[in-house]
Amino acid sequence: xxxxxxxxxxxxxxxxxxxxxxxxxxxxxxxxxxxxxxxxxxxxxxxxxxxxxxxxxxxxxxxxxxxxxxxxxxxxxxxxxxxxxxxxxxxxxxxxxxxxxxxxxxxxxxxxxxxxxxxxxxxxxxxxxxxxxxxxxxxxxxxxxxxxxxxxxxxxxxxxxxxxxxxxxxxxxxxxxxxxxxxxxxxxxxxxxx
Length: 194
Description:
The protein has eight helices and eight strands, in the order E-E-E-H-E-H-H-H-E-H-E-H-E-H-E-H. The chain is of the alpha/beta class. The longest helix has 15 residues, at 60-74. It is globular, with a radius of gyration of 16 Å.
């Protein structure tokens, strides 16, 4: 991969989606919020200079839980115990939907973000990491990377995307990374200094 040429870091955000996801049987469901995903994706997002890590869940109770987690590390004992965690969670926003994340980016930049869908499935017509990296480092547009949970995003979500990123694959057939591990690899490939 080539070294970035742009004068500034690209405007990239991530949204971790829980609504409109496939379950193991292929049905469309809302998945549960996993706290370690919030911790780890926030840390990766901060490491690679993302604008915002959006945690999107339609449940008011689970959004409240995510805000409680964020507040613990932003204020009081958690903030003094681990200032790095405070820093990482400082760019985390809790939203109810993909639309709310898009609206926040539009409000901040005056532009709608380009949506980048992701999946572990090998299918045709996917953009390669190298191609997307070149584009984002030479663009002034904001980008929003959509991460699914469960067994992947519904077509209702992926069909909205401007790009569909190629999967992360190892040398064999097994391909079932955690979303937090996949996020770190994606961000390194798109934003890392190689």
